[in-house]
Amino acid sequence: MSSIDASFKSLFLLQDRTRTGKAAGIKFNYFVLSATFYKMKLLFFVAAVANLFLLLPNFQQIIADLDSDRRALLDFADAVPHIRKLNWNANVPICSSWVGIICNKDGTRVREIHLPGIGLNGLFPAKTIGKLDGLRVLSLRSNHLTGSLPSDILSIPSLQSINLQHNNFSGDVPPTLSPQLSVVDLSFNSFTGSVPSTVKNLKRLSTLNLQFNSFSGGVPNLDLPRLKSLNLSHNLLNGSIPFSLQKFPISSFIGNSHLCGPPLTSCSTLSPSPSPSIDNFSPTISGRHNASHSKKLNSGAIIAIAIGGCSILLLLILVISFFCRKKKDRGISVTKAKASSGGKNENLKSEDFGSGVQGAEKNKLIFFEGCSHSFDLEDLLRASAEVLGKGSYGTAYKAVLDEATVVVVKRLREVEVGKKEFEQQMEILDRIGRHPNIVPVRAYYYSKDEKLLVWEYMPAGSLSAALHGNRDTGRTPLDWDSRLKISLGAANGIAYIHSEGGAKFIHGNIKSSNILLNQDLDGRVSDFGLSPLMNSYAVKYRGTGYRAPEVIETQKITQKSDVYSFGVVLLEMLTGKSPIQSSGYNDVVDLPRWVRSVVREEWTAEVFDVELTKYPNIEEELVQMLQIAFACVAELPDMRPNMDDVVRMIEDIQQSKLENRPSSEDNMSKESKVQTPE
Ligand SMILES: Nc1ncnc2c1ncn2[C@@H]1O[C@H](COP(=O)(O)OP(=O)(O)OP(=O)(O)O)[C@@H](O)[C@H]1O
């Protein structure tokens, strides 16, 4: 029996023992396992006694250290209410039995605490966990901890990794930081104040995630050689981005309306904001606060500028009218035309997206705030373009303006709403598109006959292409870790959409071709906000293969129908099978039904993508993900989890991945394995 079979049975058969009648097999395995377990226990006992004699001189000290760790943890558990029960009990061995605790190799100190999503509630008491002076990893993510973070936590001298994301912490981050820190994730809290300047001393720091807080002030100049991942997005930071951090992508900084400089817009285009007061923050690069700006110009200079300006304007008018005449009957020049359906070439002349652009409105490409206006409609019409595919809302083109500017232009068809409603919807798209897991819209164009949307181009394509593209031609398959990362990113994006508009915001077209990937393989959701613009014909044909049963019946989408569609995406990712066969919309596979039938009848690993079976030690994660997918595709909408729950469940898989699959960097013993809270 393969290990995947075993995991499958233990997780599914145990749940469904009476129905399947296969409990005997499990019992047999259980007795065999327990016998082995007792033998191992005996061996451990002998080894432990031998150890004890060897280490006798240090024994008193060891007991005292572990005792103080135990006391500190019990104080924490006593002070912080938690929904899911912890089995922390002074009478049972802390290193081998306590939920969420990992000790060092010889069981003398607590090294790691992992308590994700167990409903920890209220204030984080000082002088509890802060007393664990051998602690290296602290993960209390996805709980409900509030108030300020005690100053004795981040300063634990041995602390290497802290994960407090998705709590409700507030107040300033204490400035004393352990020099050993390499991972700091405080994202999705309500921290205020400045980013501590002491971060710049963390020479081992590789990940700093502070997104979605209320940090203010300037960005510290972090010249840290090991820093690989930085996210300061969606805070209240201001000033210019220090040179040392300009190598990070836009997504590291977006959502700070007073932050400027590369990779964001140049500082001169923003309205002035207070410059950072802390002395180690970088000076404004573009010279926005340069004293020369305030100097008055003399009259000679004014006349020279006026004459120069007029001549440039005249020249521009001449050039534009020349191009307008040349392009009267010509829209975009399509260099390569490959429709996604069947990959056949098409004559796209009749569909050129410039054809409906009205002369008087040619330059009315409306850019969203924060997007650089590095091109206009003329540039777009002139750009060489490639058809990426025809979707239910229109045709998508990849337009290359120059080496650095590549965008996707979607020519919307069947738009039903008027200009005002269109513009209102664009404002929503702008707001939602600032989340790092949503593909941002950069600009739009609206005229009577033509509606265009300009999106940021996602260079690594879609999840659909990564899963199903060129399977037979020796491409590198998408590995499990990437699939896990993409699914978490996409789930975060959808959860954000759902949380932003109460029950009002629904994606309505979740599918693998609408989950796009950037170079780092972060999953980003695209096409949000289009269905309210479209007529019912387009809406009817969206998401075929991913639609929830109630949507097929009523055509009514809800947040729970998004959850269903996301569940189908998860099944697609696990099985490697697409719910739409290559022959197109008419050939739809009911993936949830297929997976259920395989799992129920055969109890084998056959359900998983063969490309995944090559990776060792992931079977538990696959099964956990399959359970999440099953929950999402429940027939009754009320039985499905909401997207926040889905995010947490996928985060749990990621966490168990860290715990059960030792990374090369981690030289710590994993002998005492973490137990997931019940
Ligand atoms: N911003 C983008 N960057 C890269 N590829 C994109 C981008 N937007 C869309 N695509 C790809 O272009 C193709 C066509 O996309 P489009 O959204 O028009 O159709 P679709 O996703 O197949 O269907 P639907 O309109 O129902 O969403 C898809 O393969 C999609 O993955």
UniProtKB/TrEMBL annotation:
Where would you find this protein in the cell?
A: Membrane
Residue ranges, annotated region (Disordered): 655-678
Q: Which GO MF terms are attached to this record?
A: ATP binding; protein kinase activity
Q: Quick one: where is this thing mainly located?
A: membrane
Q: Which GO cellular component terms, listed alphabetically, does the Swiss-Prot or TrEMBL entry include?
A: membrane
Biased-composition ranges for Basic and acidic residues? Answer: 658-678
The cross-references to CDD domains, in alphabetical order and at most eight, read: STKc_IRAK
Binding residue positions for ATP: K410
Q: Which domain of life is it from?
A: Eukaryota
Q: Which UniProt keywords apply?
A: ATP-binding, Kinase, Leucine-rich repeat, Membrane, Nucleotide-binding, Phosphoprotein, Receptor, Repeat, Signal, Transferase, Transmembrane, Transmembrane helix
Ranges for domain Protein kinase come to 382-658
Q: Name one Pfam family in it.
A: LRR_1
Membrane protein topology class: Single-pass membrane protein
- Transmembrane regions listed in the UniProt entry: 42-59, 301-323
Q: Record's family?
A: Belongs to the protein kinase superfamily.
Matching PANTHER family: OS05G0588300 PROTEIN (PTHR48010), PROTEIN KINASE DOMAIN-CONTAINING PROTEIN (PTHR48010:SF71)
Protein name in the entry: Probable inactive receptor kinase At5g58300
